[in-house]
């Protein structure tokens, strides 16, 4: 694979096994053997501060989650056709975090499945087909969700029932409603009414656009006036990451018609879900049924319940706000001294930093990749996002401490200065 070293036999074996579908970070991929809290450990004994992973969100190998999973798998795990107390206890706890109107929750194994189902429910409920997404969005790997994931399109790919709108940058966010209206007109011109506006409420693949709070509202209103629904994809911002609300949509003061979630939901145990209004789900289930063998199995529910408890008991939403604030202001200080650092955006422990050419201000994907690989050599893990791949994506576990923030900033300063 271009850009990836095959000198390491473990890497070569992985490339042989997964072939063209292999996805590995870094020019020199890392073989990991263990992880705890915000730290991961490689086979060669090196430790890495994980500032990328949105899966073990309450901390790697969190003892409460590990205990809940081990206890439940030693007691009962089964397909989902039985009543099992922990499953409904979990769904009730999750619903307590959601808008009251979303009374039904369907649990799945991946965010892709949740978004796939949400789109199908939206189409059944509206009897319309059109979908509006942002121009570099990612919503999943099924056929339907790939069709609404511009960031996954390589050649062609855009169906005529999809319309893309620009990422809501701080300059354009106020025109979000007008962008949505234009997209609906374009769909209409091709004979499609709008079924849904599907948006990741922190626009992570687009480059992390969190502010100004409230900008989603006008787009949601426009879609509803035309008979469509708003699906909030909370796979990235959900579960307290933004520090200012449990869900990304809540920062914008909107109540979605459907909410999809995944990634941090089970702290690494594969689980995801869709919350919907009963009448919408009923309309879908009148036409076709829905069953998911593993979705919401008792072990997943036990993991999910432990995650909700840890977020509350350890004050992780507050920590995301506090540690995220410390991180953002540290980055802001460095940006004043370093020409390549552009806009710093985000909320809580979900930050995006634009990397640009100092002379022209243009996006600099090569330098972005250089910084990511340089940080890897310093023992710090982050990623990239955005239309040009020139935005650093920084997303550490919610338990990040002051010392860990400062460790990150020290490494970052050395790398951008180098
Ligand atoms: N939605 C968003 C916003 C995502 O970032 C992702 C995964 N990166 C998905 C959906 C799909 O989730 P999964 O990989 O669990 O299928």
TrEMBL record:
Cofactor(s) demanded: pyridoxal 5'-phosphate
The protein's name in its UniProt record: 4-aminobutyrate aminotransferase
Superkingdom of the source species: Bacteria
Gene3D superfamilies on file: Aspartate Aminotransferase, domain 1 (3.90.1150.10), Type I PLP-dependent aspartate aminotransferase-like (Major domain) (3.40.640.10)
Family, similarity comment: Belongs to the class-III pyridoxal-phosphate-dependent aminotransferase family.
InterPro entries assigned to the protein according to its UniProt record, in alphabetical order: Aminotrans_3, Aminotrans_3_PPA_site, PyrdxlP-dep_Trfase, PyrdxlP-dep_Trfase_major, PyrdxlP-dep_Trfase_small
Keyword Nucleotide-binding: no
Transferase in keyword set: yes
Keywords assigned: Aminotransferase, Pyridoxal phosphate, Transferase
CDD domains: OAT_like
GO MF entry, a single one: transaminase activity
Source organism: Marinibacterium profundimaris
């Amino acid at each position: 694979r271009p850009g990836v070293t095959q000198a390491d036999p473990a890497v070569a074996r992985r490339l042989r096994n997964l072939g063209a579908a292999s996805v590995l970070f870094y020019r020199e991929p890392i073989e990991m053997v263990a992880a705890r809290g915000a730290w991961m450990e490689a086979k060669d004994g090196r430790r890495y501060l994980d500032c990328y992973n949105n899966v073990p969100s309450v901390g790697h190998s969190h003892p409460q989650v590990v205990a809940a999973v081990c206890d439940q798998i030693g007691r009962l795990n089964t397909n989902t056709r039985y009543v099992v107390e922990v499953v409904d206890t979990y769904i009730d706890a999750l619903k307590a975090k959601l808008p009251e109107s979303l009374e039904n929750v369907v649990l799945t194994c991946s965010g892709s499945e949740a978004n796939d189902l949400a789109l199908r429910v939206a189409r059944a409920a509206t009897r319309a087909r059109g979908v509006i997404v942002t121009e570099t969005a990612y919503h999943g790997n099924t056929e339907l969700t790939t069709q609404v994931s511009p960031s996954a399109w390589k050649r062609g790919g855009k169906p005529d029932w999809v319309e893309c709108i620009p990422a809501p940058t701080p300059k354009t966010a106020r025109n979000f409603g007008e962008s949505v209206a234009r997209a609906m007109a374009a769909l209409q011109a091709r004979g499609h009414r709008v079924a849904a506006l599907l948006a990741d409420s922190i626009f992570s693949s687009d480059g992390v656009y969190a502010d100004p709070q409230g900008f989603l509202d006008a787009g949601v209103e426009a879609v509803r006036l035309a008979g469509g629904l708003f699906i909030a994809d909370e796979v990235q911002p959900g579960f307290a990451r933004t520090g200012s609300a449990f869900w990304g949509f809540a920062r914008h003061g909107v109540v979605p018609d459907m909410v999809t979630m995944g990634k941090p939901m089970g702290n690494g145990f594969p689980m995801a879900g869709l919350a919907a209004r009963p009448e919408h789900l009923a309309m879908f289930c009148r036409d076709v049924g829905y069953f998911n063998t593993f979705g919401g199995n008792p072990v997943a529910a036990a993991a999910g319940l432990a995650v909700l408890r840890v977020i509350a008991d350890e004050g992780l939403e507050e920590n995301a706000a506090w540690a995220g604030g410390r991180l953002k202001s540290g980055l802001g200080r460095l940006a004043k001294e370093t020409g390549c650092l552009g806009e710093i955006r985000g909320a809580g422990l979900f930050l995006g930093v634009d990397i640009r050419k100092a002379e022209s201000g243009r996006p600099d994907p090569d330098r972005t990749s250089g910084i990511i690989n340089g940080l890897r050599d310093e023992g710090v893990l982050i990623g990239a996002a955005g239309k040009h791949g020139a935005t650093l994506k920084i997303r550490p576990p919610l338990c990040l401490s002051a010392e860990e923030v400062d460790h990150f900033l020290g490494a970052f300063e050395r790398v951008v200065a180098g």
